[in-house]
Every structure is written in C-alpha cells, then in structure tokens.
Design brief:
This protein has 167 residues and is mainly α. The protein has 6 helices and no strands. It folds into 2 domains: 74 residues, Orthogonal Bundle (Helicase, Ruva Protein, domain 3), CATH 1.10.8.640; 53 residues, no CATH class. It is elongated. The termini are far apart. Keywords: Heme, Iron, Membrane, Metal-binding, Signal, Transmembrane, Transmembrane helix.
Length: 167
C-alpha cells in the first residue's frame, strides 16, 4: 500500500471513530418550548454516575436514560419543580448543580463568603502589623538621631578624600 493511501486510510479511520463518540438523542418533542425547557432542566441536573457532568454532557447510559425521562416528563406536562423533586427523591440532592438553600446546605452557600471575609481580615491585620513595625523602626530618639548624624558626617569626608582627590 502506498504511504499516501495508508495515511488517508488512517485519517479516515480516526474521523469515523470520532463520529461515534457523541450520542444523539432523537426524541420528538411536542413543541419547541418543551424542547427548550427539557434541555434547560437537563443542563441543571448532574449525572449520578459521572458526578462532574450534567445530563446533556454525559455519555453514560444512566445519563441517557435520565435525559429521556426528563424529556418524557416535560412532554407529559409536569412542572420543573415536579421533575426536580422526582430526580432528588430518586437520586438525592446530589443531582442538583445548585443545591437548595436549607439548614443543611447553609455551609455550601455561606462558606465561601465566610472564607473570603476571614481572608480579608487576615490580609488587613498583616498589612497593619507591617506598617506599624516600619513606623516603629523609623522613629529615632533625639540621641539616636544625633549619633546617626555624627556617623554620617564623620564618614563622608573619608569617602570624599579617597575618591575626589588625586595625588
């Protein structure tokens, strides 16, 4: 087989395997509004098997079955709340990407805000401490200032004598 033909065959094989990687749902909705609503709901629900993908993005058989279940329930006229309640009673609150605000989920909702406030407080305290330390180091007593001035005046002529005059 010629190298060009072999390369072409390999490219076509790779392309053909990619087309089988994405599943296509061929569910016929009763209306376009039902389709939009069902897709929106499927985007909000997490795949129980994959755990990091919603029902639309997941390729697992469980996600496919749950997508079809959501599609059927939307076409049957069930409300979004009824569908979400069905999914959460069956699979738990884990299937919700946005957990409900309840007593047991307050830490999920308030935890990031609390951590941000604690972090800001630590940064503010650190900055204040650094500023007070540099201010304390800059304050010299009159005796220390006089000693510093004497040292600076005494060392300048020696430095000038060595550099400025040529013998």
């Amino acid at each position: 087989m010629k190298p060009l033909n072999l390369l072409l065959a390999m490219v076509l094989f790779c392309i053909s395997t990619l087309t089988f990687a994405t599943p296509v749902d061929t569910y016929e909705f009763k209306s376009a509004d039902n389709q939009k609503r069902a897709l929106s709901l499927a985007h909000e629900l997490r795949c129980p098997q994959c755990q990091n993908q919603n029902l639309i993005d997941s390729n697992s058989p469980v996600a496919r079955d749950l997508r079809l279940e959501v599609y059927k329930m939307v076409d049957e006229g069930k409300s979004d709340d009824q569908i979400i309640e069905f999914m959460t009673t069956r699979y738990g609150d884990f299937v919700l990407y946005k957990p409900r605000v309840e007593g047991r989920t307050y830490i999920l909702w308030l935890g990031p805000v609390a951590l941000l406030l604690i972090g800001l407080m630590v940064v503010i305290l650190f900055i204040r401490k650094q500023r007070s330390q540099t201010a304390d180091a800059a304050d010299l007593t009159p005796e220390q200032q006089a000693e510093l001035d004497a040292l600076l005046k005494g060392s300048q002529p020696e430095a000038d004598n060595g550099k400025g005059k040529k013998s």
